[in-house]
Specification:
3 helices; alpha+beta; 66 residues; single chain; two-stranded antiparallel ribbon
Length: 66
């Protein structure tokens, strides 16, 4: 019995590459206003906080990702 393999692995892609291509194709196929809403959710920002003695310290913004 052979182990089943996903189609993206057979195509020589990683899962992250597959998801990126799938989301790009989906966003390009959307019509307005859903296309604008999906484009707005594409960007996000990172925050970091230090923990001491089980308490979270102040959050610090690291910036936005493309």
């Amino acid at each position: 019995m052979t182990t089943p393999t996903t189609f993206w692995r057979i195509a020589g892609m990683s899962y992250v590459q597959y998801v990126n291509r799938a989301t790009t194709a989906l966003r390009s196929a959307l019509k307005e206003p859903a296309k604008t809403k999906a484009a707005a959710s594409e960007t996000f920002s990172f925050n970091v906080a230090t923990w001491e003695a089980g308490e979270m310290g102040a959050k610090k913004a690291l910036g936005k990702a493309p």
